[in-house]
Amino acid sequence: LSVNISPVDFYFLDIRSELGGIVRDCGIDPANLRLEITESIVMNNSEERLETVRQLRSDGFIVEIDDFGSGYSSLNMLKDMPVDLIKLDMAFLQNSKGNERAKIILKSLIDLVDMLGMDSLVEGVETEKQFSVLSGFGCRFFQGYYFAKPMPADEFEEFCRSAKTAVQGE
User: Fold this and answer.
1) CA 52/CA 102 separation, integer angstroms
2) Are the CB atoms for 130 and 145 separated by under 8 Å?
3) What DSSP designation does 146 have?
4) Which residues contact 12 (CB under 8 A, 6 or more apart)?
5) What band does 124 get if pLDDT is binned at 50, 70 and 90?
6) Which of helix, strand or coil describes residue 143?
7) For the chain, which has fewer Cβ within 10 Å, the N-terminal or C-terminal residue?
8) pLDDT tens-digit series, residues 23-82
9) On the CB side of 31, how many CA atoms lie within 13 Å of its CA?
């Protein structure tokens, strides 16, 4: 389960205490909860914010940077970022005159994130061709309409049951 943590929540709540209480009250293993934070939360490299992220990871949460590449991304911040996964923004997949350049940048980012010991996920995958290209780049995690559109919880549960049945039937 992924949860978006807004900058407001991150700055004005004791987010570690809040999330810790939620997982305790609900009996959830923190390793099953992915916390998506935007790059702007840690962009200023505030040691206090980075320490909070480190503590969340030590508590067992999976921490992801969402929409990397959509704003004023800094490669410099990647060296100090204590996260598990970088979600690469879908802007790299959109058609533009610099399509080949976009592919070079995307492949390089996937390789860089891998070499830094993190996982990468590309958002906005909408076609089989995009999936094929990204798989060829070494990307292992994807998100987008090619796989499924957003859906209500009851439809998601049915989707998961159907997928499980399909896998078990093979």
Assistant:
1) 33
2) no
3) T
4) none
5) confident
6) coil
7) C
8) 999 998 999 989 998 877 766 657 888 888 899 999 999 999 887 876 666 677 777 788
9) 0
Q: How far is CA 114 from CA 35, 81, 107, 117, 167, in A?
A: 20, 14, 11, 5, 28
Tokens linked to 47: 């040691």
Q: How many C-beta neighbours within 10 Å does residue 170 have? A: 4
Residue 163: per-residue pLDDT = 78
Burial of 53 (0-12, 13-18, 19+ CB in 10 A): buried
Asked if 66 contacts 53 with a C-beta cutoff of 8 angstroms, the reply is no
Helix H or strand E segment including 5: strand 2-5
- CB atoms under 10 Å from CB of 111, counted, come to 14
